[in-house]
Specification:
Number of domains: 2
CATH architecture of the largest domain: Alpha-Beta Complex
Mean pLDDT: 91
Radius of gyration: 19 Å
Number of helices: 9
Low-confidence stretches: none
Strand content: 15-25%
Largest sheet: 6 strands, mixed
Strand order of the largest sheet: 1-5-6-4-3-2
Distance between the termini: 49 Å
Structural class: alpha+beta
């Protein structure tokens, strides 16, 4: 790994684990916060290299380095605006964006992978260690997960409108650190959970208010389009997946999400799953 204290350009994105800065006209650097575990960063590097061999619109990895004690990954620069930001400024395009998100998700799910983290193992371990989930909801979520199928499909597992950059050359999917191999319906459930409960990590009160106004419409349009593309799949099946996925989401301890997620699990979890 190269170590340097080179100056960075302007910040162009900010997330929970990292900030993204301009390095040059054709490069950006994703600079992780110091608290971010090294294994998470290494996993993203390995996934980025694997994705480069697939026909998936994702930024190419170039190098990694360290700046002021923070690990960074250098990617090719993609010039575009996130679907989330465009949805807020051009609300008349919400329906189109929601359908496009479902179509992109379908493209991701056409690929099978090996050697990626196991979706099922990760979700089971996450739910088992939760202290914020009441014991009855924890055991019920785990029993339900046990009877849901596994798979080797490529899953982004953090797929939402802020992870899609819309460019002149088409959409580009970013932030693959959470990519796993597993069942596509679990991946769809994760997107539904994010759209239903997710909190915006940046922007002011106005932006969050606008997102809260359109999120339910966007979720319905996204899921409707995904179901259209997968005949035989029902909303009820996705809701089943959403229960353990929502439970796992509690591990992220995102302010404002715990109580609505607990109410969702309580109201949708079968009395005796399995």
């Amino acid at each position: 790994m190269n170590t340097t204290n080179i100056p960075l350009g302007p910040i162009i994105a900010k997330g929970r684990t990292a900030e993204v800065f301009v390095m040059s006209d054709d490069r950006i650097i994703k600079l992780f916060h110091e608290w971010c575990p090294a294994r998470w960063i290494q996993r993203e590097i390995e996934i980025a290299k694997a994705l480069s061999s697939m026909p998936i619109p994702a930024p190419k990895i170039i190098d990694q380095l360290e700046i002021d004690g923070r690990t960074g990954i250098i990617y090719e620069r993609v010039n575009g605006t996130s679907m989330l930001k465009l949805a807020n400024t051009k609300p008349w395009l919400l329906f189109r964006f929601a359908r496009q998100l479902a179509e992109l998700h379908t493209e991701i799910h056409k690929h099978e992978v090996n050697g990626f983290p196991s979706q099922r193992t990760s979700l089971i371990e996450t739910i088992q260690r939760l202290k914020s989930l009441p014991p009855d909801l924890k055991s019920g979520s785990l029993r339900l997960l046990e009877r849901l199928p596994d798979g080797q499909t490529l899953c982004h597992f953090d797929f939402h409108p802020d992870q899609v950059l819309l460019t002149e050359n088409g959409p580009v999917i970013i932030d693959w650190m959470t990519a796993q191999q597993g069942h596509p319906h679990c991946d769809v459930a994760r997107t539904c959970v994010i759209l239903k409960f997710g909190q915006i990590p940046y922007g002011g009160r106005l932006m969050r208010t606008i997102v809260n106004i359109w999120r339910d419409f966007f979720l319905r349009a996204y899921l409707t389009r995904y179901l259209e593309l997968h005949p035989g799949l029902s909303r009820e099946e996705i809701v089943q997946w959403m229960i353990p996925v929502a439970a796992g989401r509690l591990d992220e301890e995102i302010p404002g999400e715990r109580e609505p997620i607990l109410r969702f699990i309580q109201s949708h979890l079968p009395a005796h799953p399995g």
